[in-house]
Amino acid sequence: MKRLSLSHLTVLDVGPPDLIPLAAQAGFRAVGIRLCSPMPGGVAYPLRAGSPELRDTLHLMEAHDVVVSDIEVVRIAADTRIDDYAPAFEAGAELGAQRVCINIDDPERARVIDRLGALCDLAEPFGLALDVEFMIWRPVARLEDAVDVVTAIRKKNAFVLIDALHLIRSGGTVDAVAAIDPAFIGSVQLCDAPIQAPPPSGIIDEARSNRLLPGEGDLPLMELLAALPKDVPLSAEVPLARETDSTKRAALVRQATERLLQGNA
User: Fold this and answer.
1) Of 105, 207, 243, 263, which has the most beta carbons under 10 Å away?
2) Half-sphere CA count of 259, side-chain side, radius 13 A
3) How far is 103 from 146, CA to CA, in rounded Å?
4) Which residues contact residue 80 at a Cβ distance below 8 angstroms, ignoring those fewer than 6 apart?
5) So what's the pLDDT on residue 70?
C-alpha cells in the first residue's frame, strides 16, 4: 500500500509550504497540493517551478519525510487553453507529484475528449498521470461517464478518480466499481457521509465543506476498498466543518482513515 495522502481540500485554508509540517504533525507522509482552482476565483496556491515558495516546500518535504502525491485541480471548460497548464505541470514535476486531478466543466463531449487527449500529451513529459473525477453536478457526472471519456482518448496516462462520496451521490455502487477494468482506476479519495443525500441544493456544500470522518457515516467504504486494486493511491478528502483548527482536523482525518484501512488489511 502506498502512503496515505492528505487531500488539500481537507485543509484548504493552509497552503504550501506550511501544509507540509501540518501534514507531518498529523501523521501524513503524503499530500496533494491545489495549484489550480476548480472554479473561477476559487482558492488555489499557484506555486511555480524554481520559485522561493516551491524551494521552501521542497526543503520542508525533505525535513519531514513528506512527498507530494498529486496536484489539483485542472479544469477543462469550453474556454480552456491547454498550454495554460504547462506551468502547473512543471511545478508538479519539480515537487515530485505523480498524478493530476481533472475536473470537467464542458458539456461538449467530443471537445472534452480532444482537449483531454492534448492535456495528456502535455503532461506526459512531466511524468504525470491524469485522473478524471466525476461528480453529479458536472457534465462528467458518473463513473460510467469518466470511464467512457478515458476509454475514448486512448492515452496511457489517463485514468479515473473515484471519490467515495461522489460515487454514491451519483447513484454509483461498489459493484459498478468492481465491474470496470481495474487498470482504469488511477486514485481514490476516502471520506464518509450519511447514506441519505441532502436535497439537491445541498449536494455541493456537502462535498466541499461538510463531509464526515471515515467510519462516522454509512458509505460502503470497506466494500469499496475490497473492490479496488491493492496498490491504488489513496487519499483522505474530508473537509470537516465541525473542526475549525486545521492541524486537529488533519489529525482526526488521519486517525479515522488509518482505522478504516487497518480494518481492511
Assistant:
1) 207
2) 10
3) 10
4) 106, 115
5) 98
- Closest alpha carbon to 166 in 158, 156, 176: 176
Is the pLDDT assigned to residue 265 strictly greater than 70? no
237: amino acid identity, one letter:
E
Q: What is the pLDDT of residues 194-237, one digit of tens each?
A: 999 999 999 999 999 999 999 999 999 999 999 999 999 999 99
Grid cell for residue 199? 436535497
pLDDT of residue 260 exceeding 90, the answer is yes
* HEC letters along the chain: CCCCEECHHHHCCCCCCCHHHHHHHHCCCEEEEECCCCCCCCCCCCCCCCCHHHHHHHHHHHHHCCEEEEEEEEEECCCCCHHHHHHHHHHHHHHCCCEEEEEECCCCHHHHHHHHHHHHHHHHHHCCEEEEECCCCCCCCCHHHHHHHHHHHCCCCEEEEEEHHHHHHCCCCHHHHHHCCHHHEEEEEECECCCCCCCHHHHHHHHHHCCECCCCCCCCHHHHHHHCCCCCCEEECCCCCCCCCHHHHHHHHHHHHHHHHHHHC
Pairing of β 30-34 and β 99-104: unpaired
Cell of 227: 473492490
User: CA-CA-CA-CA torsion for 53, 59, 61, 65, nearest 10 degrees?
Assistant: -170
Read off the C-alpha cell for 39.
Answer: 472554479
Residue ranges of domains in the chain: 5-264
pLDDT tens-digit map of 157-184: 999 999 999 999 999 999 999 999 999 9
Q: What band does 40 get if pLDDT is binned at 50, 70 and 90?
A: confident
Torsion of CA 187, 193, 194, 195, to 10 degrees: -10
| CATH number corresponding to 5-264 | 3.20.20.150
